[in-house]
């Protein structure tokens, strides 16, 4: 038993590492949507306000005027459907997943990819529809 305590202590110290995943820092900032793809159909977001901000304190906000697509698609599948400001918390769960939580809603898993200043978020809805949102990093001086 005397030899087991130092081993347990060492195991505890080693296992308490920093959970820093691939997108932990690079996702922070303001992102403006430029395209939305649902069921293989693409929608330009150039004229639709859809600004997603990930903050360093693991909160997010979204300013959305996403009403135009309502006539073309069943909105239940889109995480941020409708017009308004959405706020909540997010967590970088792994190198392949970000989970967001809006007040009064279930956690939503998003699968990110970042290349240069372009963020792609893939979402699989409850009705098994793949939704891809492509955003660009908003320049800091805007």
TrEMBL record:
PROSITE patterns: PROKAR_LIPOPROTEIN (PS51257). This is Lipocalin-like domain-containing protein. It comes from Aquimarina algicola.
């Amino acid at each position: 038993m005397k030899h087991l305590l130092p081993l347990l202590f060492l195991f505890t110290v080693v296992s308490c590492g920093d959970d820093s995943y691939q997108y932990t820092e690079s996702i922070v900032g303001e992102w403006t949507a430029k395209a939305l793809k649902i069921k293989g159909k693409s929608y330009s977001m150039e004229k639709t306000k859809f600004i997603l901000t990930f903050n360093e304190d693991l909160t997010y906000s979204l300013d959305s005027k996403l009403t135009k697509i309502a006539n073309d698609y069943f909105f239940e599948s889109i995480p941020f459907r409708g017009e308004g400001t959405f706020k909540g918390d997010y967590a970088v769960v792994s190198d392949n997943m970000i989970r967001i939580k809006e007040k009064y809603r279930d956690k939503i898993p998003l699968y990110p990819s970042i290349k240069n200043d372009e963020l792609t978020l893939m979402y699989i809805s409850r009705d098994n529809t793949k939704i891809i949102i492509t955003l660009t990093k908003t320049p800091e001086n805007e």
